[in-house]
Design goal:
By secondary structure, the protein is of the alpha/beta class. The chain has helices spanning 36-43, 63-76, 97-104, 128-135, 153-161, 186-194, 217-231, 251-261, 267-282; strands at 6-11, 48-54, 81-86, 109-113, 143-146, 168-170, 199-204, 236-239. It has a single domain (6-282), classed as Metal-dependent hydrolases (TIM Barrel). Helix 5 (153-161) packs parallel to helix 6, helix 6 (186-194) packs parallel to helix 7 (217-231) and helix 7 packs across helix 8 (251-261).
Length: 284
């Protein structure tokens, strides 16, 4: 295991007494309040020194309250929370700017996630207002979290080509179809993503995209090899994606599996993946 403190770039916390999360209705395993004590318990002996909280898709009307809640946790309970990725309705285009300005007054807010994956319209990310909203992010020092599934890759590439000024990171290696052993055209699409210098890749929740009960390291290997062949250790970040990742693996298994999949990594490369790249990208 690692002998240095890591940055977890993808931590979810949710309180069902405070917020409504409709998507959890069909995932009973994690459809319960899960807080910092629960996270600390699953981390075990893994030294998480810094946390980036990832918005949890509560009801859109509650997202500012979610950010305020996590800010309070950071101030009163756990100073390891160094960054917050908030939701914002970027599809509003110029009309979202007032909300972005409000979020920017909170120094913990480092970026925005507006999930593309859940949109049935595969061209959602190409709509002019959405692109206009994303293009506002650098004005406020915000990054953009790209959450897609593999069938969004083609249009997401067209979208990313239009926003070279925005620092972006693709969550969960783009959610490839690991369960069905779908490698192509995902591999070529990863190469195309890597050719955009403003795009980073988050290596997170790998087993979640496989069969939760029957995945193997060998099944994950070609996907992880592809990521590091294209993005190297210079533009990759680790994310725990807890508690969603617990559907397929324990927290320690997620970390251990990733380390086993990169056996030739040097100490410097491990520090890039698990710490320094995240510190630079998220400014934590």
């Amino acid at each position: 295991m690692l002998d240095f403190g890591i940055v977890d770039t993808h931590v979810h916390l949710w309180d069902l007494d405070k917020f409504r999360y409709p998507w959890l209705d069909v995932i009973p395993h994690i459809n319960r309040t899960l807080l910092l004590d629960d996270y600390n318990r699953v981390c075990g002996n893994i030294n998480v020194e810094k946390i980036v909280f990832m918005q949890c898709e509560c009801e859109p009307s509650q997202h500012l309250e979610e950010t305020a809640w996590i800010t309070e946790l950071a101030e009163k309970e756990d100073p390891r929370i160094k960054g917050i990725i908030s939701y914002a309705p970027l599809e509003l285009g110029a009309a979202v700017e007032e909300e972005l300005a409000t979020l920017a007054r909170n120094p913990l807010v480092k970026g925005i996630r507006r999930i593309i994956q859940f949109e049935p319209d595969l061209e959602f990310c190409l709509k002019p207002d959405f692109i206009a909203g994303v293009k506002l992010l650098p004005k406020y020092g915000f990054t953009f979290e790209v959450t897609i599934a593999y069938y969004h890759n083609k249009n997401t590439l067209k979208f990313l080509e239009q926003i070279p000024e925005v620092s972006c990171i693709i969550d969960h290696i783009g959610k490839p179809g690991i369960k069905d052993n779908l490698l192509d055209p995902w591999r070529d699409e990863m190469k195309s993503f890597s050719q955009l210098p403003n795009v980073y890749m988050k290596v997170s929740s790998l087993a979640t995209e496989a069969d939760h009960d029957n995945w193997t390291i060998d099944q994950l290997r070609p996907y992880v090899d592809c990521v590091f062949e294209n993005f190297g250790f210079e533009r990759t970040c680790f994310g725990g994606d807890w508690p969603v990742s617990s559907l397929a693996a324990t927290y320690s298994t997620c970390v251990d599996t990733l380390i086993k999949l990169i056996p030739g990594a040097s100490e410097q490369e491990l520090r890039q993946l698990f710490r320094s790249n995240a510190e630079r990208f998220y400014r934590v």
